[in-house]
Amino acid sequence: MKHSQLVSKILGYIELDSELDHFDNIHETIIKDLNFKGTNLWILAFAIIIASVGLNMNSTAVIIGAMLISPLMGPINGMGYSIATYNFLLFTQALKNFSFAVVASLIASTAYFFVSPISTAHSELLARTSPTIYDVLIALFGGLAGIVAISSKLKGNIIPGVAIATALMPPLCTAGYGLATLQFNYFFGALFLFTINTVFIALSSVIISQILKFPIRTIVEAEQKKKVNRWISFVIILVLIPSIYFGYVLVQQEKFIEKATRFITTVNITEGNYLLKHEIDPKKKTIRLVYGGISLSEVQKNLIREKSAGYSLEDAKIEFQQGFSFDQLTKKNTEVENLTSEINRLMILLKEKDELLEISSRKNIIGKQILDEIKILYPQINSCTYAESEVFSVPDSNPEMVQMIVFKTEGKNLHNAEKNKIENWIKARLKSDKLKIFFE
Hints:
The chain is an alpha/beta fold.
């Protein structure tokens, strides 16, 4: 009984029926948002220009503003709703209005970018040219949130958030930029992203409409239903497969950047040369290294290339560029040569010092680690001192490096058998027989 009550309570939190608006109200809301005439048409035109200016000036805030006022979600939800309820007349109307909005948006954005004096492709614009599987997820779950909000009595302010998340307007403007500048890779990439958003927002409307059992307002034969379902599956697969591929490519590029960055940190200084800057191109798998100092020899370049293999960069192309060479400067000025040598010497010394400091810091915590571990078995040990020192003996003049450990106990003293156990454990723990262990 308790289990059934718990299940009922959980279902009460997630069920939508209690907040579901009347089906006639939902139908009227979707019909109202379909049309692109009068107010909606003017809002669409203004939103297109605002988004184009935002992309042109690389302004995120302006782009978000354009997405907030864009009315493009209406016909997309209408297409999904009409498919779910098999209302083919409504679907035709929604598709017609949607196509009109898309064409109008492309014309407006192309015209803007054609006359704009700024033709540089900034980061906000480039971000809309390479869709991936992640854009599919954003569109699907954003669309689910939107149609659930439309179906609810509460409504709320979900739709503006969905418009921002799914980003319908910027891809259309980016496609217009591609047409205006005759860069068709931008045009097709942005148009594909817009198609992904459209298809999966519409799909989310279909899913929720069927889950909430929106009434079918027309007479439909079973064969027509099967045909519609087949077309839905075909379109989803057609859009999903390329986006999965692009998502895989994106992940591989991110991995390449990560490996290349770790590799570059190991070649900052190379025999009298230091790295001035670097460039990583994950698409071409190219790493460009710009060095300053003495000109790199072919042997040094090959050594750097061999080092890249340790970071799984065997397929990467490593290019070298001399930022400036001290070889030429030293012929003109001996003073510069001396200064260069001194700079390189000091940088190498700094690197060695950093390595020594790192080793020393690791040694400093050995005593604490041993104390933390041994106190579990011998709580009377309350202090541990660890040090390394050289032991000199006669007649041998070469010192021997030994590790010394001093334990202090409080209260109950340790027996000889316990001390022997501790010594054997320490030798195994530090993997060394050259130990001096004292108990106080």
